[in-house]
Amino acid sequence: MSRYFIIYKPFGVLSQFSGEGQTLASLFHFPKTVYPVGRLDKDSEGLLLITDDKQLNHQLLNPRFAHQRTYLAQVEGIPDAESLRQLEKGVEINVDGKMYHTKPALAKIPDEIPALPDRDPPIRYRKNVPDTWIALTLIEGKNRQVRKMTATVGFPTLRLVRWSMEKLSIEGFQVGEVREMSQDEVYRSLGLSGFRRK
């Protein structure tokens, strides 16, 4: 039977189990058979799914399965409506040395930001430079895509948290927290309840 773990990956932790620096192995005693589905950069935080379900891994990493990933990005400055429209229509970013036009997305300044745990270390505070949280929902996951997108429209990302994948979220999680979930819970949350499981 496959196993499924949802974690709130802290800032500074690598999305792998071995190597130099702090890794996922420092957070929890995971079974030797599991591995992360996708990745989060060392300087990004938030939702990471860890499983030994190869079929699910293949499905989620398949570009034809456009599942939504929502990120909360604290950016430098105050984006205007036109900047948000640009993010939604797609912008040109550099991916592996080639220019790539991002797919349509959802971008907004939320009325309310979920209660996120403090980051350790905190972002650098600058009294004369305002910052804003934006919610960005993508259906793709290029390397450092959110950071590249916000920088392209003139608002560099200061803090980045992956909040959810479809309805699977880290709401109520503490930094570094690990929760094991059942296959049904994970598949339902990802909108895969009709997906054929082995």
- CATH topology label of the largest domain: Alpha-Beta Plaits
* Protein structure class: alpha+beta
Number of domains: 2
Count every helix, treating DSSP H or I runs of 4 or more residues as helices. 4
Task: Point out poorly predicted stretches.
Answer: none
- What's the number of extended β-strand segments? 11
CATH class descriptor name of the largest domain = Alpha Beta
CATH architecture of the largest domain: 2-Layer Sandwich
Q: Report on the biggest sheet.
A: 9 strands, mixed
The share of residues in extended strands comes to: 25-35%
Shape: globular
Give a description of the structure.
The chain folds into 2 domains: 1-66 and 167-198, 2-Layer Sandwich (Alpha-Beta Plaits), CATH 3.30.70.580; 68-165, 2-Layer Sandwich (Alpha-Beta Plaits). The chain is globular and about 50 Å long. The chain has 198 residues and is of the alpha+beta class. Helices cover 16% and strands 29% of the residues. Strands 1, 2, 3, 4, 7, 8, 9, 10 and 11 form a 9-stranded mixed beta sheet that branches. The protein has helices at 54-61, 81-89, 145-152, 183-189; strands at residues 4-9, 35-36, 45-51, 69-76, 92-95, 98-101, 106-108, 131-138, 157-165, 168-169, 178-181. Strand 5 (92-95) and strand 6 form a beta hairpin. The model has no long low-confidence stretch (mean pLDDT 92). The chain has 4 helices and 11 strands.
